[in-house]
Automatic annotation (TrEMBL):
It is found in: Cell inner membrane. One of its GO terms (biological process) is response to antibiotic. It comes from Escherichia coli. Could be involved in resistance to puromycin, acriflavine and tetraphenylarsonium chloride. SUPFAM superfamilies: HlyD-like secretion proteins. InterPro entries: AaeA-lik-b-barrel, MdtA-like_BSH, MdtA-like_HH, MFP_Efflux_Pump, MFP_proteobact. Keywords: Antibiotic resistance, Cell inner membrane, Cell membrane, Membrane, Signal-anchor, Transmembrane, Transmembrane helix, Transport. This is Multidrug resistance protein MdtN.
């Protein structure tokens, strides 16, 4: 009877190798997830401004349409300039009238000043005569009782001196009044010049241009609409800089730093990637369970309500070379960060 040969024991090495490779792969995946976090809870965003006129008036020209792209300096709309042009013409006419009035008043001042100089010379002459009469009176006063001089002669000299001084004071007062009149007109002219500058500024503000490259949104008006100062007409997206707000779990934040490289994908075209860098990490959100109410904080909802899960914080990622045709505010995105 022939004996059946025994089978060689099967080697356990392949199975152990598979298990080891699986463990290595698992460790790598865990390390990768922990050191290079990613999230699909993200959206594209950009800065916006409300385009508001700084002067009131009726819109006479609207050069843009809703969702239109514009370049810096492009005309957006124009307010009716006619009221401001009329105000400017009125102010300039007032300035011209004041200049003429100042010129005439200055001539009067010059004439009065010449008369004052003449009177002053006369007064000096009278003062000299009065002094001479006073000296004569002082020398001859002891002889007055003897009748060699008369008191009337002395009185006439004093009267002449006082009259000359009174005339001089009157002319000087009149000249000073005329100079004060010129000063008042000059001050009034400065006020009119300020009005002209302000009116020119208002006239310039009637034309509104794009302050930067952007895209018009929320345009709901047309030519003929009365625009009030400081009331928004539409919104302008600043398309020069796009960023992604990615909500990462708080357990991932330890591996995120300002400057961390990131890869961005938009759900509108997931096959195209964009490079970016972490700009900043949020330091405040509103929790779902209440107990904290702070105005202005973003609210990030947790994905599971019946399990205590990690809170998510917004991370701002600046996109290096965004495609302006693909990026829209609120567009869903996926953010993957590079390992640190």
């Amino acid at each position: 009877m022939e004996s059946t040969p025994k089978k060689a024991p099967r080697s356990k090495f392949p199975a152990l190798l598979v298990v080891a490779l699986a463990l290595v792969a698992l460790v790598f995946v865990i390390w990768r997830v922990d050191s290079a976090p990613s999230t699909n809870d993200a959206y594209a965003s950009a800065d916006t401004i409300d385009v508001v006129p700084e002067v009131s008036g009726r819109i006479v020209e609207l050069a843009v349409t809703d969702n239109q792209a514009v370049k810096q300096g492009d005309l957006l709309f124009r307010i009716d300039p006619r009221p401001y042009e009329a105000n400017l013409a009125k102010a300039e006419a007032s300035l011209a009238a004041l200049d003429k009035q100042i010129m005439l008043t200055q001539r009067s001042v010059d004439a009065q000043q010449f008369g004052a100089d003449s009177v002053n010379a006369t007064v000096e002459k009278a003062r000299a005569a009065a002094k001479q009469a006073s000296d004569t009176l002082r020398r001859t006063e002891p002889l007055l009782r003897e009748g060699f001089v008369s008191a009337e002669e002395v009185d006439r000299a004093r009267t002449a001196q006082r009259a000359a001084e009174a005339d001089l004071n009157a002319v000087l007062l009149q000249a000073q009044s005329a100079v004060s009149g010129v000063d008042a007109l000059v001050a009034q002219r400065a006020a009119v010049e300020a009005d002209i500058a302000l009116t020119k500024l208002h006239l310039e503000m009637a034309t509104v241009r794009a302050p930067f490259d952007g895209r018009v949104i929320s345009l709901k008006t047309s030519v003929g609409q009365f625009a009030s100062a400081m009331r928004p007409i539409f919104t302008l997206i600043d398309t020069r800089h796009w960023y992604v707000i990615a909500n990462f779990r708080e357990t991932d934040l330890k591996n995120i730093r300002s400057g961390t490289l990131a890869t961005i994908r938009l759900m509108s075209d997931s096959g195209k990637t964009f490079e970016g860098k972490v700009d900043s990490i949020g330091y405040g959100v509103l929790p779902d369970d209440g107990g904290l109410v702070l105005g202005g904080l973003p609210k990030v909802s947790r994905s599971i309500n019946w399990v205590r899960v990690a809170q998510r914080f917004p991370v701002k990622i600046m996109v290096d070379k965004p495609d302006p045709e693909m990026f829209r505010i609120g567009a869903s995105a996926v953010a993957n960060l590079e390992p640190q």
